[in-house]
Write a structure and sequence with these properties.
By secondary structure, this protein is of the alpha/beta class. The protein is built from 10 helices and 9 strands. It binds adenosine-5-diphosphoribose and zinc ion.
């Protein structure tokens, strides 16, 4: 990592008033949650694993659902704690410069670190809740996991007997339009877009980058490996939990 890069990143942040941040799985790997496309990513290690996150396979294969519920019981998300990267974004919020934090992550670590819920858009949902795929029922994931621990291998909805899943967006499902609008509005009105720990390969959330670029808004990317938009951004290579405290430190509280 060049110190020039950090100096440039710090001056971009200090010069901005309305910063939109987009985070991906890379901000949570130092909390013990694997990413998807990095060297030890879930999809990198097992290309078939993506199936578990596809709504069609999930709804049609009871065996897959039983394995998915067993995975949820031992999901690293259940014990993960925020790291210095998540905390650096709370410091950015306390400086008054954070306009919106859009995350693709479902681990809840931004909320756990102290990011204000009203500034956070969980574009791909969360694992805190379970939802029914056939009616509007939703409830705490912990209660549904208790049913699995008590022996229900594939618990059905208590309201309509429909199939239950986590409140995350599966492949083949559309995102909540309100979340997409929040993300696009943030990209269109911010004066700096900061992309952290994402390959920026998955839409519609990745559209935030071209939306900002079309308005001439500077884009800062911090990521261990290359992303789809490196050519049009200031790019810092390195570990987020090391770099973010350096980039966001010393901001005056507003
Ligand atoms: N510091 C910096 N970068 C890191 C770190 C780290 N500690 N750990 C991982 N990375 C980088 C990886 O090199 C990778 O380029 O973070 C990036 C994570 O990219 P992806 O695994 O593609 O994750 P993400 O961009 O969030 O994926 C988007 O795809 O599978 C779907 O719904 C899922 O929300 C996810 C979406
Ligand atoms: Zn139901």
């Amino acid at each position: 990592m060049t110190s020039a890069g950090i100096g440039q990143a710090r001056s971009l942040v200090q010069g901005a008033q309305r910063i939109a941040v987009l985070t991906g799985a890379g901000i949570s790997t130092d909390s013990g949650i694997p990413d998807f496309r990095g060297p030890k990513g879930l999809w990198t290690r097992d290309p078939d694993a993506e199936k578990y996150s596809s709504i069609d396979f999930y709804l049609s294969d009871p065996e897959l659902r039983v394995r998915a519920w067993q995975f949820r019981l031992s999901n690293p998300v259940l014990v993960a704690q925020p790291n210095a990267g998540h905390r650096a974004l709370v410091a950015l919020e306390h400086s008054g410069k954070l306009q919106r934090l859009v995350t693709q992550n479902i681990d809840g670590l931004h909320l756990a670190a102290g990011t204000s819920p009203e500034l956070l858009t969980e574009a791909h949902g969360n694992t805190r809740e379970a939802v029914c795929t056939a009616c509007t029922w939703r409830g705490p994931m912990s209660e549904t996991l208790d049913r699995v621990r008590a022996g229900e291998a594939d618990p059905a909805c208590s309201e309509c007997s429909g199939i239950l899943k986590s409140a995350t967006v599966f492949f083949g499902q559309s995102l909540d339009p309100a979340c997409v609008q929040e993300a696009f509005d943030a990209a269109a009105t911010c004066d700096l877009l900061v992309c952290l720990g994402s390959t920026l390969a998955v839409y519609p959330v990745a559209e935030m980058v071209p939306i900002a670029l079309r308005r001439g808004t500077p884009v800062l990317i911090v990521n261990a490996e290359r992303t789809e938009f490196d050519e049009s951004a200031l790019v810092l290579r390195g570990s987020l939990s090391e770099l973010l405290p350096e980039i966001f430190s010393g901001l005056s509280e507003s």
